[in-house]
Write a sequence for this structure.
């Protein structure tokens, strides 16, 4: 293991007494005077470790089963957490103890491979490298945190050293009850420039047999395998602006780290992001955070589909009546993921092995379609989006989700030979799409665009009388910018409504369609009452100065212009903390541009990370599947190369210049690609070149 690789060029921090340094000259967080709230996180879904800038494990979390709750509009499922706090390492050198968490020495921390943190503790005669990781090895996730420790002698004299035994408790036996501790490495005599290696493991008590596995295994191999897992899902991407590769990788890592899995390999929900772990599960956050699984880890996607199949619909309760219309898009999440999964993988075996997935998705859709009023539009109602309202009598994003599930069911039933069912859902999808495009649009300042939703008596207004009821009225706190004369202005974009932003990803409309482009242009303009030109983001009522999913909408509003999109991407890089993560609410109310905060109300943002990865792949890099055929349509100004890219069922390398795109199939199986003159089948190792239209 080469521990002396070059410092990460962007995501790093150095602490020396009161002095804080970073080589990152872009992040707004470089100006924050405190490191409070800054964490470097590692996760393999089974274990999540949140570490401060000195390497103290502030919280180590393992996950257990789910249970139902009755609390918030967007939360009706919790997960059980097994947690331990304040774990630190101490090394003994020549009889003296050095606690690595103490503020008595210089510490550097950065990222290796855009995934795992590396801590370097500098002392007068030696330095200590610590690389924490949650193992993914031989296709398995282990329920533990491993600290790989390297001590380097920097004097001419030999050093006698050891890693001190980590205390099993502090004052009494029961005060540290949720972790098993194991260590490897004996006392060593270290000559000049020699390196001593140690390992420490913090293990979920529910898998106590893994302690023996740790003791008998080479943890450097585990570390290598864990790096390889993330290297494989990242691929080898090259862009003219190198920092954007790192930003993309960190968003992908953030979305993966949002999830929790129990020791029986079952997904048990997600958190806001990689920090903090929460008992509560916001289903909407979980859905968006899971989208990268479609491209890079189909097994995780399958497990997530099964979770939503069980918990997607709010049960009948006392605060909230529940049912499909409690939150239409959440109720459809299992069917949405199933549709997208089949679109990207063409895998029917999963649905054969789990027939309840299609059965339940069809049952939900049938129940929704049966609600149509004889004289009403082919649109359907939803009360909540997540914790905020699905605005209007009919909410645009929620009905987009319904269209996608109908379209996906049509494809799945068609592939299964159930042509009558396929035809039924395809006809429903067509009618829903026609209705959305004709009735949920209006003339906006940039041309015809989508409304957030449509009202009853007025198309672009909806009375707050619908919301001024017990429980419901609490949701008005998010609508302070859009209520006038007792009505909600539906000519607006809600920063936590992401399905309209995902329209090309869902293949509802192409990214070039004026209806889509006009909607995003409006969302990122001062014509949108929730948009703030000061921070170039979308506010969140009386709760926050900005909500991070809105920044992804603003980003995509500039896609057609190379210069504008570059500026928007740069703003996302500026908003990334020094570990490369985005916070849900980076601004307080009325904050000026760059006056960012950490851990304000919510944690890190897997939702924004998941949709960022999805829109970058589908709209910027232009990758999609249609009827099993890979289509590559990068934005016209983009040049890039991407070697060893996993994308759904494809494994390929791409080189894209201004004038052509070449694709090499790396799969054992053939891969069908849409070329300039029709479909082309590539066998393993074959390369295909497509000419690009020069604009």
């Amino acid at each position: 293991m080469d521990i002396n690789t070059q410092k990460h060029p962007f995501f790093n921090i150095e602490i020396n007494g009161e002095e804080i340094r970073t080589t990152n000259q872009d992040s707004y967080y470089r100006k924050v005077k405190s490191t409070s709230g800054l964490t470097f996180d590692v996760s393999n879904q089974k274990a999540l470790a949140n570490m401060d800038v000195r390497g103290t494990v502030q919280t180590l979390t393992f996950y257990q089963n789910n249970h139902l709750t009755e609390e918030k509009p967007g939360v009706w499922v919790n997960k059980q957490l097994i947690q331990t706090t304040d774990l630190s390492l101490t090394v003994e050198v020549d009889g003296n103890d050095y606690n690595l968490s103490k503020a008595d020495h210089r510490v550097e921390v950065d990222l290796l491979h855009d995934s795992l943190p590396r801590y370097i503790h500098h002392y007068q005669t030696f330095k200590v490298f610590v690389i924490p990781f949650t193992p993914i090895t031989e296709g398995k996730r282990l329920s533990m945190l491993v600290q790989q420790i390297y001590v380097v002698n920097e004097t001419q004299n030999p050093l006698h050293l050891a890693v001190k035994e980590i205390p099993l408790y502090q004052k009494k036996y029961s005060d540290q009850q949720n972790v098993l501790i194991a260590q490897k490495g004996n006392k060593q005599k270290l000559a000049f420039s020699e390196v001593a290696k140690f390992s420490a493991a913090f293990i979920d008590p529910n898998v106590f047999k893994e302690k023996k596995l740790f003791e008998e295994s080479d943890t450097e191999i585990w570390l290598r395998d864990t790096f390889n897992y993330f290297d494989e899902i990242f691929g080898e991407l090259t862009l003219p602006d190198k920092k954007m590769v790192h930003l993309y990788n960190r968003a992908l890592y953030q979305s993966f780290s949002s999830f929790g899995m129990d020791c029986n390999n079952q997904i048990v929900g997600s958190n806001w992001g990689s920090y903090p772990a929460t008992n509560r599960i916001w289903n909407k956050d979980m859905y968006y955070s899971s989208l990268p699984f479609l491209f890079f880890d189909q097994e995780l996607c399958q497990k997530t589909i099964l979770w939503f199949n069980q918990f997607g619909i709010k049960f009948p309760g006392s605060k909230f009546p529940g049912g499909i219309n409690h939150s239409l898009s959440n109720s459809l999440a299992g069917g949405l993921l199933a549709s997208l999964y089949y679109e990207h993988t063409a895998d029917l075996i999963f649905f054969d092995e789990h027939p309840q997935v299609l059965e339940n998705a069809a049952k939900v859709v049938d129940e929704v379609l049966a609600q149509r009023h004889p004289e009403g539009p082919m649109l359907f109602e939803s009360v909540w989006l997540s914790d905020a309202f699905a605005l209007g009598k009919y909410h645009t994003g929620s009905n987009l989700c319904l269209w996608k599930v109908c379209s996906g069911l049509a494809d799945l039933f068609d592939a299964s030979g159930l042509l009558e069912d396929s035809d039924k859902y395809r006809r429903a999808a067509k009618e829903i799409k026609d209705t959305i495009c004709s009735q949920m649009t209006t003339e906006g300042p940039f041309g015809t665009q989508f409304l957030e939703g449509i009202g009853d008596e007025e198309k672009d207004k909806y009375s707050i009388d619908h919301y001024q009821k017990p429980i419901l009225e609490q949701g008005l706190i998010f609508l302070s910018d859009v209520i006038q004369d007792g009505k909600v202005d539906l000519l607006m974009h809600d920063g936590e409504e992401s399905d309209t932003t995902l329209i090309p990803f869902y293949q509802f409309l192409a990214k070039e369609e004026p209806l889509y482009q006009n909607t995003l242009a409006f969302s990122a303009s001062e014509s949108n009452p929730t948009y703030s030109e000061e921070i170039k983001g979308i506010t969140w009522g009386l709760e926050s100065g900005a909500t991070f999913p809105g920044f992804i909408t603003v980003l995509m509003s500039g896609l057609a212009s190379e210069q504008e999109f570059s500026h928007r991407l740069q703003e996302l890089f500026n908003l990334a903390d020094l570990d490369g993560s985005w916070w849900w609410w980076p601004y307080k109310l009325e904050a000026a541009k760059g006056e960012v905060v950490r851990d304000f109300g919510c944690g890190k943002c897997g939702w924004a990370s998941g949709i960022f990865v999805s829109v970058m792949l589908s709209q910027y890099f232009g990758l999609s599947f249609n009827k099993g055929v890979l289509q590559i349509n990068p934005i016209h100004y983009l040049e890039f190369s991407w070697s060893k890219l996993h994308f759904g069922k494809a494994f390929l390398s791409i080189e894209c210049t201004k004038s052509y795109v070449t694709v090499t199939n790396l799969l054992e199986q053939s891969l069908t690609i849409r070329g300039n003159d029709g479909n082309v089948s590539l066998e393993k190792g074959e390369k295909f070149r497509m000419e690009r239209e020069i604009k």
